[in-house]
Amino acid sequence: xxxxxxxxxxxxxxxxxxxxxxxxxxxxxxxxxxxxxxxxxxxxxxxxxxxxxxxxxxxxxxxxxxxxxxxxxxxxxxxxxxxxxxxxxxxxxxxxxxxxxxxxxxxxxxxxxxxxxxxxxxxxxxxxxxxxxxxxxxxxxxxxxxxxxxxxxxxxxxxxxxxxxxxxxxxxxxxxxxxxxxxxxxxxxxxx
Length: 192
Description:
mainly beta; flat
């Protein structure tokens, strides 16, 4: 589907789908293609979330506090070990270092590691699976969470990303701004 980064009179509006942050780090892409607005009110940054709820970024005495999707409080704090993020349901999420590299305790408390092996960057994902960033002759190849190959290639229309299920994803531009053309059938994948 089409994902657009546009402006309206109230602020940046992003019609999203995949739940990721855009390249600027400012806009969160909504899952269902709804309009998502980044606005300001008197208390701080206000984000109109997935269901139209108000989401606020405020400060309390302990650090940055984010009122999450359902109105929960989400805190970004520091403890003695590193950055600590109180996640969506109030869980603790830590960014720590161990002897092997960056270790991230994810949303469910699992350990996630960024390590190096002989082939390139290796990321142990949320469930402890190995995720590799490698290169083949066609471009960057990413072995995703389920071990599938994900390729970043170019075709005549722009950047083409073969997603987790092997579908083609294109990044194009139209007159209104950045346009992201989503999933297409694997049958469209040209031969390497």
